[in-house]
Each structure stands twice: as structure tokens, then as C-alpha cells.
Specification:
mainly alpha; globular
Length: 133
């Protein structure tokens, strides 16, 4: 796969992932408020869950081409999840003296994202009865 194809594949996935993340942020502020940056949390959890499923399907089961691997794992889930937003939001909370809120934000993002990725892997391997195939 050449460099231009790789960049295009990642770009297509990233466009979808970033757009989803943006709208998740808008909807979460509307429905959940601004007490915590729920949009980032929801995006990280959903993206981690999808990544867990995709790792099994793309790398282990379906053995998709490099094009799809880059599009889905690097582009889509890479832009849907956002460590940079988590970092900036947490630093802003710390700067404003909201230490417990920042700690809660960091812990929820890390713990729930790891749990979601694990559940995604387990669902892909066992929920779809693919463990033996």
C-alpha cells in the first residue's frame, strides 16, 4: 500500500470518527449538561468498545487488508477517541481548582475506556461465537 492510499484510508475513517465525536459532544452537553466533559467520556468509551471489537475482527478473524485496518482502527477509532481533549479538559479543571472533578474525569475515562475495550474484545470473540474459528 502506498503512502497516498494510506493517508486517504486514514482520512476517510478519521472524518467519520471526528464527526461522530463532535456530535456526541453537542448532544451530551444538551442532555447531560456541563458538570463533566461527558462528550469526551462517551466518545472515549464508545470508541474503545468499537476498537475492541475491530481488533478481533480486523486483525484476527476477517484479516482485512491494510486499507481497512488503517481506515477503521487508526482513522475511525483514533479520531473518535480523544486523549488530547481528556488532557486539556482535566488541566483546565486542575487550573480552576476543581481537583476532585479532574481526578474523577481522568479515572472515569481510563477505567471505563479499558472496560469498554475489554468488553468489545470479549463480545467479538465469544458473543459472536468466533472463539473457535
Amino acid at each position: 500500500m502506498n503512502t497516498i492510499s494510506s493517508i486517504a484510508s486514514i482520512g476517510i475513517g478519521a472524518t467519520v470518527g471526528a464527526s461522530c465525536r463532535y456530535y456526541i459532544g453537542i448532544l451530551s452537553m444538551h442532555y447531560l449538561g456541563k458538570a463533566l466533559p461527558y462528550g469526551t467520556l462517551i466518545s472515549n468509551v464508545i470508541g474503545s468498545f468499537i476498537a475492541g471489537i475491530l481488533v478481533v475482527f480486523v486483525l484476527e478473524k476477517l484479516l482485512l487488508s491494510e486499507t481497512y485496518r488503517l481506515m477503521l482502527l487508526v482513522g475511525l477509532t483514533g479520531s473518535l477517541t480523544t486523549m488530547s481533549a481528556l488532557s486539556i479538559e482535566s488541566v483546565e479543571m486542575l487550573s480552576g481548582g476543581s481537583y476532585s472533578q479532574a481526578l474523577l474525569n481522568i479515572l472515569l475515562n481510563i477505567a471505563l475506556s479499558l472496560l469498554a475495550a475489554s468488553l468489545g474484545v470479549m463480545l467479538a470473540k465469544y458473543g459472536f461465537n468466533l472463539a473457535q474459528s
